[in-house]
Design a protein that fits this description.
The complex is a heterodimer. Chain A is an alpha/beta fold. Chain A has eleven helices and six strands. In chain B, α1 packs parallel to α7, α3 packs parallel to α4 and α9 crosses α10. The model of chain B has no long low-confidence stretch (mean pLDDT 95). Classes of the chains: A alpha/beta, B alpha/beta. Chains A and B meet through α5 and α6 of A and α3, α4 and α5 of B.
């Protein structure tokens, strides 16, 4: 149990420290693309991906850094992509909103809300058609269930009993818009999903152990032919919708609300649990910090030193060669 | 025919498509067909008839009325090794799926830096006549052709329908495959076997030295009829079937215009921002000094398509309109043509065998 929690903690800590470094460096105006931070939401990425095998696939939306890293996406290529460099995971054509790493099974992310949900279902359909034993997990926010693409995709996944795990991160806001103008009061996200026919579970998305437990239960059932699942996790995005700043002062949410959620920080909670269990020493956690810090330093140094793509590449890769 | 083995065997356009699908399904297990009514008893006007019996429901599938998500589903399967063929019985039904087609499928290869492509085909049928009206007879090729990353193909003959569809299915990029309902019953020679016609090349379907008529899809048929009318009054028209609108190769048309010095472009769609305007622009850029008259366009008027046959008979341009325009451009009288062009077929059906309902 402790070894498992240590791994989950390390995964979350990597995401947290990478995001913090991006936020710090972003002010240098060298990462010239929109960046959607997931600080505060790391437990869902790390907990769900811990329930997946290397052969399983993951897709995501605009806030995808955590999902990419938790699935094992290459850090150096991600950072290079944010800098628009030739060594980026999309050779500079995608930026923060289009991460991909096929080697680890991260099939892509795209910022049109809800849009990667059917595409993820399509990858599950392909696996199902070929009788492969893998599953696809797709991460999206609370607003994505408002899209027709979600309903249509869930319906199709049920009709064909597809191996797909829908993971909904409910962070309460769609940009600056709270739930009230978007969804009827009192109808939960997982209740809606259950109404469509999906198997559902709902849990605290800031407790990585609980997230993983839910995801393992769902993934095991999906692998056994149980069909698609919908997991609803409550969480909170600490920074502004897009960009590296805190925005609790602009009027759409309160400092008090943010502080209440910060007290439930998924990374701190896991760290406390680890130290309380006494199975890992503070020294080991400090070593982990140093190791991740060195890795992040290296990724940023590589990205900054890497060449930009040649201008002619803007007209390449539109079609197969 | 340079694109395939000579064949005396004739098939209808619908049958030729059916044969292409049959060959693709038989030769590659990653190919599957999906669409509303694809396995139903009518089989998309015969084009998918018999295939579910032969290949089973796992490879010839019906679907929920969820065109947007299903476009995403076929895209997801395409980036994961499958070669899907999604069919819409009318182009108009695809409009709810533009998000997936334009934002996602068209850009997948590019926005991920060439990591993975999206080999999918979306077959879409352009309706006409029999009161199809504003939402069952739009001809949207220019909209699709505007989008980098999509290929847009619209064959006018059974041989091209088969050969281009096979090329589309085995192409590694998304292909929008536009079939005109009025072509479904035409017959023509079709080569046996997996004979593919390359995407991206126009075809000269009739040679002539007096005027060039470049056409899309069904307007190729009207253009060939116009060429026959013109031959009666001593005008030899060269007719070029454009076949592929993206990638759009206009060089054959330029070569032809350098010889004929006159150009008409006949398109099944509207005039404003249409492919006819695009071709006129390209020829003007490349062969301006060869043009003895301003190039002219034969298109639909810029209005939604009406329903009543009283309104559509004058709405769609016909062979006689193309012929008269050619005569006018060449300074030749076409007054003798009217009687010859009188049609025995009502103007709202493709032929006397057509009985509706759609």
């Amino acid at each position: 149990m402790t070894a498992a929690l240590t791994n989950l903690y390390r995964s979350m800590l990597l995401i947290r420290r990478v995001e913090e470094r991006i936020a710090e460096e972003y002010t240098q105006q060298e990462m010239r693309c929109p960046v959607h931070f997931c600080i505060g939401q790391e437990a869902i990425a790390s907990g769900v991906c811990a329930a997946l095998s290397p052969d399983d696939k993951v897709m995501s939306g605009h806030r995808s850094h955590g999902h990419y890293l938790a699935k094992g996406g290459n850090l150096a290529r991600m950072i290079a992509e944010l800098y628009g460099k030739a060594t980026g995971c999309c050779s500079g054509k995608g930026g923060s909103m289009h991460l991909i790493d096929l080697e680890c099974g991260f099939l892509g992310a795209a910022p049109i809300v809800g849009s990667t949900i059917p595409i993820a279902v399509g990858t599950a359909f392909a696996a199902h058609s070929r009788k492969e034993a893998r599953i696809t997990a797709v991460f999206f926010g609370d607003a994505a269930v408002e899209s027709g693409a979600f309903y249509e995709s869930a319906n199709f996944a049920l009709v064909h009993n597809l191996p797909v795990l829908f993971v909904c991160e409910d962070n309460l806001y769609s940009v600056y818009t709270p739930m009230a103008p978007r969804q009827p009061n009192g109808r939960g996200l997982s209740e809606l999903a259950a109404g469509i026919g999906l198997k559902t579970a709902k849990a605290d998305g800031n407790d990585v152990t609980i997230v993983k437990k839910c995801a393992v239960q769902a993934a095991d059932d999906i692998r056994a032919g149980g069909g698609p699942w919908f997991l609803e996790f409550s969480t909170y995005r600490w920074l502004e919708h897009c960009g590296p700043q805190y925005d609790n002062d602009i009027g759409y949410r309160t400092q008090a609300e943010f502080e209440a959620w910060r007290a439930k920080c998924p990374v701190s909670r896991a760290r406390s649990q680890l130290l309380k269990s006494a199975a890992i020493e503070k020294g080991a956690l400090d070593a982990m910090e140093r190791e991740l810090s060195a890795m992040i330093d290296d990724a940023f140094s590589q990205a900054k030193a890497a060449p930009f793509p040649a201008p002619k590449e803007a007209l390449e890769q539109i079609y197969a060669a | 025919m340079k694109d395939g083995r000579l064949s005396n065997r004739t098939l209808t356009y619908a049958h030729a498509i059916n044969e292409a699908l049959d060959i693709a399904l038989a030769s590659d297990p990653s190919v599957y067909l999906i669409g509303l009514g694809t396995p139903d008893p009518k089989g998309v006007f015969g084009s998918t008839k018999g295939l579910v019996e032969k290949f089973g429901t796992a490879r010839v599938l019906d679907m929920p009325v969820s065109e947007n998500a299903l476009t995403g589903v076929v895209l997801g399967s395409a980036i994961d090794g499958m070669r899907p063929v999604l069919t819409h019985q009318r182009v108009d039904f695809s409009l709810v799926s533009f998000e997936q087609i334009i934002n996602q499928a068209a850009k997948w290869r590019y926005m991920y830096g060439g990591n993975v492509g999206a080999p999918l085909v979306i077959r879409m049928i352009i309706g006409r006549g029999w009161g199809q009206g504003p939402q069952h007879s739009q001809s949207l090729q220019s909209v699709f052709a505007h989008i980098p990353g999509l290929k847009v193909v619209m064959p006018s003959t059974p041989a091209d329908a088969k050969g281009l569809l096979l090329s589309a299915i085995f192409d590694d990029d998304p292909v929008v495959f536009l079939e005109h309902r009025w072509l479904y019953n035409i017959e023509g020679p079709v080569p046996e076997g997996d004979e593919r016609v390359p995407i991206g090349q126009p075809r000269i379907v009739r040679s002539g030295n007096d005027i060039t008529i470049a056409a899309t899809s069904y307007m190729t048929i009207e253009s060939l009829r116009a060429a026959e009318l013109l031959a009666d009054i001593g005008i030899e028209a060269e007719v070029i079937d454009l076949r592929t609108l993206n990638p759009f190769d206009h060089q054959d048309v330029v070569k032809s215009v350098k010889r004929t010095n006159h150009l008409i472009v006949a398109d099944t769609s509207w005039r404003n921002c249409g492919i006819a305007g695009e071709l006129v622009a390209r020829v003007s850029e490349d062969a301006f000094s060869s043009l003895e008259q301003p190039p002219r366009r034969v298109t639909l008027p810029d209005a939604p398509v009406p329903t009543s046959r009283a309104l559509t008979d004058g709405f769609y341009p016909h062979a006689i309109d193309i012929a008269r325009l050619a005569g006018e451009m060449l300074g030749r009288s076409t007054s003798s043509l009217s009687a010859a062009a009188e049609s025995a077929v009502p103007l709202d059906v493709p032929d006397n065998n057509f009985r509706g309902p759609f």
